[in-house]
Design brief:
Largest sheet of chain A: none
Largest sheet of chain B: 5 strands, mixed
Shape of chain A: extended
Number of helices of chain B: 5
Number of domains of chain B: 2
Number of strands of chain B: 25
Strand content of chain A: under 5%
Helix content of chain B: under 10%
CATH topology of one domain in chain A: Cytochrome Bc1 Complex, Chain D, domain 2
CATH topology of the largest domain in chain B: Sulfite Oxidase, Chain A, domain 2
Distance between the termini of chain B: 57 Å
Order of helices and strands of chain B: HHEEEEEEHEEHEEHEEEEEEEEEEEEEEE
Structural class of chain B: mainly beta
CATH class of the largest domain in chain B: Alpha Beta
Strand order of the largest sheet of chain B: 6-5-14-9-10
Distance between the termini of chain A: 44 Å
Low-confidence stretches of chain A: 1-15, 37-46, 132-137
CATH architecture of the largest domain in chain B: Alpha-Beta Complex
CATH class of one domain in chain A: Mainly Alpha
CATH architecture of one domain in chain A: Orthogonal Bundle
Low-confidence stretches of chain B: 1-23
Mean pLDDT of chain A: 75
Number of helices of chain A: 6
Order of helices and strands of chain A: HHHHHH
Shape of chain B: globular
Oligomer: heterodimer
Structural class of chain A: mainly alpha
Largest interface: A-B, 47 and 66 residues
Chain lengths: 137, 387
């Protein structure tokens, strides 16, 4: 704290140095923002992923399920009706506002489209970017 | 390091928004999801983000962060403030703590190389099928994790003799009425010198996907025992019994026939990983030439060591030892390879089978359980050899 009132002495800085310093500061700032984007920014919530198939319950399924999660976790399942009943009941406990009169139709919709005999879902890949080629441990 | 992070958090909101824009988007030309910091990963889920490492990832003993799998039950923290951040330690302790990152990092640093695997890895191979993320081989990766010992933090707090379990809670944003992601480990494992509160992964500050600013790494155990975005530690008199301990992440205490249900009282929480090997190459359906073809993959066994990996090229009738890569560390996978020289054309079923220091080995089928955990059947890849 005692330094605060001391006269600043001997600080001679050329304009070239100031210029360089400003450039460096801008560069460091830009790098900082990029690093931030990589490590700190939360996942943006948006509609991304496969669509739920058409059917009389499609719109309700979208409204009920996608308030919390996207369709990936649904479309990769291949389960029989009893398992879908359990799953719809679990999701209802966890906050999905399934009207009692919609439950059976919803279970039928999932069982039909994502039953055990439906061909497997083919997962997609995230994009490669330039940094992928330079990947280091 | 903390100083730099604090500085970064001080950047204005406008700049943050601008930087955030390209993080997740659909790439116009390829229609592929762009996740900044994650390259060419298999998308199991977008919200909440679950990304699987492709088979090429098994080519590296330490998995690059951009290929390291991601598993989330819910979203990570949205409005994180490093200045406000505290790790609290409470429950059955003499001196409850509230620590800043700086205080934490003043403790001695330690590091381990650990293979982290989601308990559900391989669920997509279970027959009959079970509900959940349909992981195949790549919900696993090996990282160099550095941080402070959980035991050192618990020593500062002073664990009472009544403390038997240690629970972790992260800064996850809980959706709907979903129970919070809280799990506990026995105090003996918590006090083990290799159980760390991790700030760095592969020599860099943890990134958001892996739990920045602080995560637990419970070495050799299922991924769910390594809580991300850690903010609260509680020492408990008994095992935590919330959803992600019960009914979640449990293992039957008696053998089940495939498809059989199990009563809750016949299950116990999952802990360490089982012995397992996978074939990373050649890949399923590959068309090969006669002569030298290298079969390769990885093998791991949680808290135990891999002592042998065997390969069969005749569907399991005969087995030969694969060569284990010299790079090794307790808790880390061993890469392995086998110089296979098929002389005749035809269809071949290549298989791999690992044995660990406990004498455990892989069976023809995984031990079936209703949630499809710890899938570790002998791995098999069918290939075609032609001129």
């Amino acid at each position: 704290m005692w330094m605060r009132n001391q006269p600043r002495q001997g600080l001679i800085v050329s304009s070239k140095f100031v210029h360089l310093f400003v450039h460096l500061a801008v560069l460091v700032g830009a790098c900082a923002v990029l690093i931030l984007a990589t490590i700190l920014i939360p996942t943006r919530v948006q509609a991304a992923g496969p669509a739920l198939p058409s059917g009389t319950m499609q719109a309700k399924a979208v409204t009920l399920c996608m308030e919390c999660h996207d369709a990936h976790i649904i479309v990769q399942q291949r389960m029989a009706k009893p398992a879908w009943i359990k799953e719809v009941e679990k999701m209802t406990r966890w906050g999905a506002t399934v009207a009692p009169e919609d439950k059976d139709a919803l279970v039928d919709y999932f069982s039909l489209n994502f039953g055990v005999d439906v061909p497997a879902y083919e997962a997609t890949m995230t994009a490669a970017t330039r940094s992928a080629k330079k990947a280091k441990p | 390091m903390i100083t730099r992070r604090n500085f970064l958090y001080g950047v204005s909101g406008t700049m943050l928004a601008a930087a955030a824009a390209p993080q997740l988007a659909w790439a116009g030309e390829t229609s592929k999801l762009v996740v900044l910091g994650k390259e060419e990963m298999i998308v199991r889920s977008f919200r909440f983000l679950d990304l699987e490492m492709p088979l090429s990832g098994f080519g590296s003993w330490v998995t690059p962060v951009n290929h390291f799998f991601v598993r989330n039950h819910m979203s990570g923290p949205v409005d994180f403030d490093a200045e406000e951040y505290r790790l609290t330690v409470g429950g059955e302790v003499d001196n409850p703590l509230s620590l800043t990152l700086k205080q934490l990092e003043s403790l001695p640093m330690h590091s381990i190389v650990n293979t982290l695997e989601c308990a559900g890895n391989g669920r997509g191979f279970q027959k009959p099928q079970v509900f959940g993320v349909q992981w195949q081989k790549g919900a696993v990766g090996t990282g160099k994790f550095a941080g402070v010992r959980l035991g050192d933090v618990l020593a500062k707090a002073g664990v009472k003799t009544t403390g038997k379990h240690v629970s972790f809670r992260g800064l996850d944003v809980v959706p709907g009425k979903v129970p919070p992601f809280i799990r506990s480990i026995p105090v003996e494992k918590a006090l083990h010198p290799d159980t760390l509160l991790v700030t760095h992964m592969n020599g860099a500050v943890l990134n958001k996907h892996h739990g920045y600013p602080l995560r637990v790494v419970t070495p050799g155990w299922i991924g769910a025992a390594s809580c991300k975005w850690l903010t609260e530690i509680k020492v408990l008199e008994k095992e935590f019994d919330g959803n992600f301990m019960k009914p979640g992440y449990r293992w039957p205490t008696r053998p089940l026939t495939p498809g059989e249900a199990v009563k809750p009282e016949e299950t116990t929480p999952l802990t360490a990983l089982d012995v397992k090997s996978i074939i990373a190459g050649p890949t399923e359906g590959a068309k090969l030439k006669p002569g030298l073809n290298t079969v390769h993959g990885a093998a791991w066994a949680g808290e135990d060591d891999i002592v042998k990996v065997e390969v069969s090229a005749d569907g399991g009738a005969t087995w030969v030892d694969a060569k284990l890569d010299p790079q090794q560390s307790k808790y880390a996978w061993r890469l392995w390879s086998y110089a296979w020289k098929p002389k005749q054309r035809g269809e071949y079923a290549l298989q791999s089978r690992a044995t660990d220091s406990q004498g455990r080995t892989q069976g023809a089928a995984a031990k079936w359980n209703p949630s499809g955990y710890l899938y570790n059947a002998i791995d098999q890849v069918k290939v075609h050899v032609d001129a």
